[in-house]
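Notes from the 1:1 (GR / supervisor)

We went over the backlog. Supervisor wanted to see one worked example end to end before approving the batch request, so GR pasted a single chain during the call. The sequence is below; no edits were made to it. Supervisor asked that the structure be written out right there so they could see what the output format looks like.
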Amino acid sequence: MKYNRAQIMKRAWEIKKQDSSYIFGLCLKMAWEEAREEKGTMTQREKDEKEAMEIASGYCGHVKLHETRWQKYGKDRTYVEARVYTNAWNLKRVIKAGYQDNLTGEWVTDKNLY
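Structure output shown during the call:
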């Protein structure tokens, strides 16, 4: 699928102008998510990541998406969470989105997300 990248960049700048506390990278990610939602190509993982980021953005501070790969006991998973940091970059809160089973490709949503 082709996307109009110029339009996505313009939308990212609009989001940045609406709330100047956002980091531009986050604005760009939000613009891409909107474009994917319009085309209906958003996966469950992307929806859960977006939900975790929206919950995290309700807290004061900086928000970053964090992925951790875990391999033990014959399992291989990538855990995804949104982390909220204070202005001094101290970890304040963690909102878990879920994990992806790397062996089967299945996405499992965290029970507490919804």
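Supervisor's comment: Residues 43-114 form one domain.
Batch request approved.
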